[in-house]
């Protein structure tokens, strides 16, 4: 008996956490039909001898909500073995939405997630009002991988309260309407509800986005409304509101099916672990995600993240540099007089406090050169400030010198959170933490963490040995599948959907990020490719072969009620 596809002779790491085993896998239509010794031939055969075979990876934190409309191949995450992506995180979504509010939601997404407003307005079909129709519109786009969605607090609250949603508390009646609308969205296919407590996420006018300061009882009402329909509560919180926000997460876990939240070592491993262990002890289902390396922006001459970006009024030379194209920027930094101006303008800020961007000498202690090889360096321990202290230079001189020496190609990683890699190694081994938080589709001109899954396997398993192979795979397949209550994905089991990766562990690595201009209106974005992926299958179809996407768009829009 023949099969559509046979993956022959691989080392199967099935996602359950058990020891890998040698086997063939047969696929017919979109399902796994045999695991073991498969005698029948496949219409397509994949030779997996010496390779690893795993379930497809599940990305629990993306913002592909807009990009998927003009990039149905869903790059860069589809280069890194991701076969299912969760949209709608951080409270910002495009549904529900009245026709009069489209521009408002697009502007909000632009300021929160750095996705150009004009690209959103022109790229999305905007054929929906409620969440179910939004999912229908995404389905019509024909994505290459599976997508699932959360409904956002911002859109839901604005739909009910309008302008009052930004700064005012909801009335009892408005809370009821918000909860009912969230319930409707989950019944129409949303996997849950996302909310954002981080004040730094703002509207174009500088005010925090709707829902940031919502009363806990509002979120409890939502959790109670979506829980009976299997909805989960996703929360982003700021460290200033730890006690309140952890109680919001706990309430979400008590009343909804599960709680999903983002964390970082700066919040405090021990205190977060104690809170979560208490929730788990009460029988709640709680899962957290965190970046798998220091999270932050990439600075370089090829994008607009350069030294002194926080002080435009006192940094005329740097602001002049930002306005130029790449070739002219390189010429200007090679002009000795102009270069001296750049250095002096940063030196005057040496007493400024540390921040997310360059603002004087102190902030360079979290900036690291990513190297000049094919594989970027994310674990460097010597910062630019350390290099400067050893060489007698100012850190900005080091930045400019390396830029010059590499003909402008150098990239620098600005670690804003999860800076302590030893503490991060502890955090990602907690049972309730799933590595991820790549933020794919967001901040694309300044950040690129879409290769998180490749980094988990290449660094935390192969290079560092923090995870066994089976545990690394379980953490990025079965664990996130459980978070979404996906019964038919996440492990390699007969009868489940054939979302599968075949990869060469010895070769697996991320490639150096690069800037492309393929967004609508030519807006730039970072992309990051991978090496070592023999094949990725989505619903039984080969969407990637030998590190290159095939162009096949086999993804489904997953709905919570399926």
Automatic annotation (TrEMBL):
It comes from the Bacteria. InterPro entries: Amidohydro_3, D-aminoacylase_insert_dom_sf, Metal-dep_hydrolase_composite, Metal_Hydrolase, Metallo-dep_Hydrolases_sf. One of its GO terms (cellular component) is cytosol. Keywords: Hydrolase. One of its GO terms (molecular function) is hydrolase activity, acting on carbon-nitrogen (but not peptide) bonds, in cyclic amides. It comes from OM182 bacterium. This is Amidohydrolase. Residues 44-543 form the Amidohydrolase domain. Pfam families: Amidohydro_3 (PF07969).
